[in-house]
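User: Structure please.
Assistant: Input sequence and predicted structure:
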Amino acid sequence: MEGEGQSGLGLLQAGLVWLLGQLDINAGALLKTTTTQWVIGTCNKVFYNL
């Protein structure tokens, strides 16, 4: 069952990459920046709580 979750996450990431590729350059850049900041913030919280 854990393997399914991993493949699902990979599929989601691939979908997000494709979606970003379809967006207008400015909107895509903004979304990438926001997503990157969210990911970094989330990773920092997780790391900080360890």
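DSSP finds two helices and no strands in the chain.
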